[in-house]
Design brief:
58% of the residues lie in helices and 12% in strands. It is built from eight helices and five strands, in the order E-H-E-H-H-H-E-H-E-H-H-E-H. It has helices at residues 14-25, 32-41, 45-54, 62-74, 91-103, 118-132, 140-162, 176-190; strands at 4-7, 28-31, 82-85, 110-115, 167-171. It has a five-stranded parallel beta sheet with strand order 2-3-1-4-5. Bound molecules: BIS(adenosine)-5'-tetraphosphate.
Length: 193
């Protein structure tokens, strides 16, 4: 099993690059943002609660997203590996993920961390907000709140994996194809069966 975390601040290209990486490597894509947006679209109680939190630019409670990931892992017993996109976003989520994978005698192989300046993040997200219909992308105040949440709660997740020597920093500015090539190179070096 090859398990990869694609990491980075909001708007760093995680969703964009995930689409290309799952097509190339046949990994199962697990995006907590996508899972939450499906709940919102279906107007479930969880979705209604999540929408309130996401519209403020805050993180959804750990137990909610950990539960979603746990179910998704169980629902895909034959996957050859997982690409985690937007998860884990807190120390508690990282610890929970390690425990869940251990139950399956698996672990995280590598965390690829996209590095993008704050100015570029805000520019990209406001641009996406013009067409995406995502309410958390249309307001610069909310976008900056998301980036602050990232610095306060999520950046430490990279420290957690750094202690196991699993973090590789990737320049996340430039063309989508160049960034994809840099990510693929790191995966190819580690995914030799
Ligand atoms: P997510 O859905 O994870 O989304 P994101 O971080 O906003 O963006 P992403 O990084 O995937 O976007 P991308 O760069 O691809 O989170 C949304 C919310 O859900 C969070 O704020 C939180 O409330 C909640 N949530 C999700 N997971 C959670 C968790 N684990 N715990 C708690 N809460 C959680 O795209 C951005 C734009 O940049 C696109 O328009 C794209 O076209 C553009 N772009 C991409 N690459 C580019 C490049 N190289 N050059 C120029 N533009 C580029």
């Amino acid at each position: 099993m090859f398990n990869l975390i694609l990491f980075g601040p909001p708007g760093s290209g995680k969703g964009t690059q995930s689409e290309k990486l799952i097509a190339k490597y046949g990994l199962k894509h697990l995006s907590t943002g996508d899972l939450l947006r499906s709940e919102i679209a279906a107007k479930t109680p969880l979705g209604l609660e999540a929408k309130n939190i996401m519209d403020k630019g805050q993180l959804v409670p750990d137990e909610v997203v950990i539960g979603m990931i746990s179910s998704a892992l169980d629902a895909n017993p034959t996957a050859k590996g997982f690409l985690f996109d937007g998860f884990p976003r807190t120390g508690a989520q990282a610890q929970a993920l390690d425990n869940l994978l251990e139950l399956k005698e698996a672990s995280i192989n590598v965390m690829l961390a996209l590095d993008v300046s704050e100015k570029e993040l805000v520019k990209r997200l406001l641009k996406r907000g013009e067409t995406s219909g995502r309410s958390d992308d249309t307001n610069e105040h909310v976008i900056r709140a998301r980036i602050t949440e990232y610095h306060n709660k999520t950046a430490i997740v990279a420290e957690y994996y750094r202690q196991f020597n699993k973090v590789v920093l990737i320049k996340g500015e430039g063309s989508v194809d160049d960034i994809f090539a840099a990510l693929s190179k790191e995966i190819d070096e580690r995914n030799k069966e």
